[in-house]
Amino acid sequence: MFLGGAITEYISWPWVFYVNIPIALVALAAIPTLMPAAAPRRGSLDLAGALTVTTGLAATVYAIVRASEVGWGSAQTLLVLAGAGALLALFLTIQARRHEPLVRLGIFRVPNLAAANVAQLLLGAAWIPMWFFLNLYLQQVLGYTAFPSGAALLPMTVLIMIGMIVLAPRAIARFGPKAMTVTGLAVLAVGMAGLSLIRAGGNFWVDVLPASLVAALGMSLAFIPSLGTAISSARPEEGGLASGIVNTSYQVGSALGLAAMTALAASRGADQLGNLPNLTNGFSAAFTGAAVIAAAGAVLAAVTLRSPRSAPSSPASGPGSAPAAAG
Fold first, then answer.
1. C-alpha dist (Å) from residue 254 to 194, 242, 326
2. Which of 48, 71, 255, 289 has the fewest C-beta atoms lying within 10 Å of its C-beta?
3. Which domain holds residue 52?
């Protein structure tokens, strides 16, 4: 987030996309050395399953994003949602009938896997909107330019890194992944509730920093245990499938949460540029909605997650970089 602000301020905003290219090239170059070799196995590619699930999820997000402009009861919204539902139903049918499906449906009957994926979905739905609306508040209400607004989020980024690398593994080892997932989501909800108190005449030190650090602490405590639980619940040979499912859950939750909170914020005045009180009210509503989502995630995690015999205790159990996924 900090580099994004610096790039936008001093180069040009499209470069926030281009900067990923050298990172991807470095990752590709490192694969032969760092990735363990595995015995090859012949199989088939489930193109129909991949096409239907990708198109169905994309249509769902598109319908929600557009609903704030065309109306939730409009023919466009209803038709696109119906088409998305049909595509996802077709995907499930294909998976049930294929000998080698993209997603073996029986994997969702594995204890904790479905519950951990729901926790990740709601975590993304609450967390990602916060970054978006906090940036808007800093720039459109407090008057920050791109670089200072990116720098204002640096304390959160540092705390997330420390939390995920140092605090979360130790807390999981002592209290278990279920307790930390529930606690993290609850703390995230408290941080979001604090951000909902932002003022049109506020400042960074009072309205942003304290609540944002609480939210960052909650995120760092919830992300690693829910991610590790989802992956470790599957059989070793299905670790890649479990990793793909949980990453998809987080990303879909992020997209749906951002779309829903954008619609909520716009309904409360966030689309009225220049009107600081209305802008603030809209952004506050989005933070409140995110707090409700995080609180719902904490409740569901408390009810549905089981305490495993052995708890995942390292960020290495996840499928990728935790800070990158979280930010």
1. 21, 18, 10
2. 71
3. 45-103
Let me know the angle formed at the C-alpha of 91 by 88 and 92, rounded to the nearest 5 degrees.
95
Per the model's pLDDT, the better-predicted residue between 314 and 168 turns out to be 168
d(CA 194, CA 191): 5
**Residues contacting residue 287 through CB under 8 Å, at least 6 positions apart:** 130, 133, 192, 193, 195, 196, 198
pTM: 0.85
Q: Among candidates 195, 66, 62, which has minimal Cα distance to 136?
A: 195
Q: Is the pLDDT of residue 205 over 90?
A: yes
* CB-based contact 2:132 (threshold 8 Å): no
CB-CB contact of 218 with 190 (8 Å): yes
Mark whether 260 and 324 lie in a shared domain: yes
- Map residue 202 onto helix, strand or coil: coil
User: Residue 294 corresponds to which tokens in the numbers above?
Assistant: 């995080």
**In the 8-state DSSP scheme, what is residue 151?**
H
What residues contact 216, with CB distance under 8 A and at least 6 apart?
A: 155, 156, 157, 159, 160, 163, 191
For residue 263, tell me if it sits in a domain.
yes
> Each residue of 18-43: b (16+ CB within 10 Å) or e?
eeeeeeeeeeeeeeeeeeeeeeeeee
The answer on 183 and 84 residing in a single domain is no
Of 213, 225, 220, 218, the C-alpha closest to 186 is 218
